[in-house]
Design goal:
Blueprint lengths: L6 H22 L37 H8 L12 E2 L6 E2 L41 H5 L6
Antiparallel strand pairs: 1-2
Length: 147
């Protein structure tokens, strides 16, 4: 039929119309930046109750440099987390109390994410259920007289 457009011509014309409409809309509208919603920043609770009370701290900024720390402490910088006696409620793994999450700091017992992902992972072996040979038990418990 004379005067009728082929499929390619119709697609090309449609593409041109869409392109021109998009560009025309971009030219006529003025873009205004959106106002960002204001939010109040939450204050983090102080963890001072969880920290040990006796700490060696550099009080002045000029004392908190590597050369001054090495001068004061030599090769051994004091670092003590206490005893590793805080059991994970889920799997029984031992942790330091300083490893607790903020939610568990003041609770009597805690779940830890580094051992069993707070109870989501079940360890394949329960070591307290294994019958060890009699000669190994004192070695494993640290009650052996030998050095």
């Amino acid at each position: 039929m004379p005067g009728s457009l082929s499929t390619n011509d119709r697609l090309s014309a449609r593409r041109s119309r869409l392109f021109n409409n998009r560009n025309r809309g971009a030219r006529t509208t003025t873009a205004r930046p959106r106002a960002r919603p204001t939010t109040n920043t939450a204050q983090r609770p102080s963890n001072s109750s969880a920290l040990p009370t006796v700490r060696i701290v550099a009080q002045e900024p000029h004392l908190n440099v590597e050369s001054e720390i090495l001068r004061r402490f030599g090769d051994e910088i004091p670092h003590y987390l206490g005893s590793m006696d805080d059991r994970c409620v889920s799997c029984g793994a031992l942790h330091w109390k300083e490893e607790r999450s903020r939610n568990d700091l003041n609770r009597e017992s805690a779940l830890y994410s580094t051992c069993c992902r707070k109870g989501l992972v079940i360890p394949p072996v329960r070591y307290d259920e294994i019958d060890y040979p009699d000669f190994l038990v004192p070695l494993l418990l640290g009650t052996d007289d030998r050095q």
